[in-house]
Amino acid sequence: SDSDPLQDFCVASDFFFSGLGIPLNTSNRNGVAVAPANVLTFPGLNTLGLSMNNVEFAPGGVNPPHSHPRATEAGVVIEGSVFVGFLTTNNTLFSKVIHAGEMFVVPRGLVHFQWNVGKGKARLITSFNSQLPGSAVLPSTLFGSMPEIPNAVLTKTFRTDDATVNNLKSKFAV
Ligand code: GLV
Ligand code: MN
After folding, report:
1. What is the pLDDT of residues 30-50, one digit of tens each?
2. Same-domain check for residues 148 and 94
3. Which domain holds residue 163?
4. What pLDDT is recorded for position 158?
5. Ligand 1 atom at shortest distance from the alpha carbon of 126
6. pTM of the predicted model, to two decimals?
7. Residue 81 Cα to ligand 2 middle (Å)
8. Could you give the number of structural domains in the chain?
9. Is 138 a member of any domain?
10. Ligand nearest to the CA of 63
11. Is residue 31 located within the same domain as residue 113?
12. How far is the CA of 18 from the centre of ligand 2 (A)?
């Protein structure tokens, strides 16, 4: 979805990047780790209108609900079995467990997530039609922002109380 290129390629940059094959540490609360190959980590992508991620999951790991403001996403499972899903703007969930060699798409801007439902590790390669797709990660956007969203907004939004909102904020504070 990026604009059309004004030149053949970005003369200042290298055309290859070896950062998608480095094993990632998934020992974190979500059990997931992402290595992006976007224009910031791989400047050779400049003006080319695409980028990729390596996404690795511990058993049970979850890539939390997020959306990409500037790109449609296509992903392929390299290893394991992954429950992938996205939500339409009418809140219909499209989801499926997919396995190595199978791919999925996420239309631009829609909220989506992945969950490793296999016994072992899982790994995806995802790709985007933007050199910098951006990612709004819902839990950290809502509960880990700086400065914070006022509790009055979040208690009303989620029909809950201050204690619940404070508990969630404490988990996502940066
Ligand atoms: C997966 O959804 C990713 O954005 O890499
Ligand atoms: Mn994504």
Report:
1. 999 999 999 999 999 999 999
2. no
3. 144-174
4. 98
5. 5
6. 0.96
7. 17
8. 2
9. no
10. 1
11. yes
12. 21
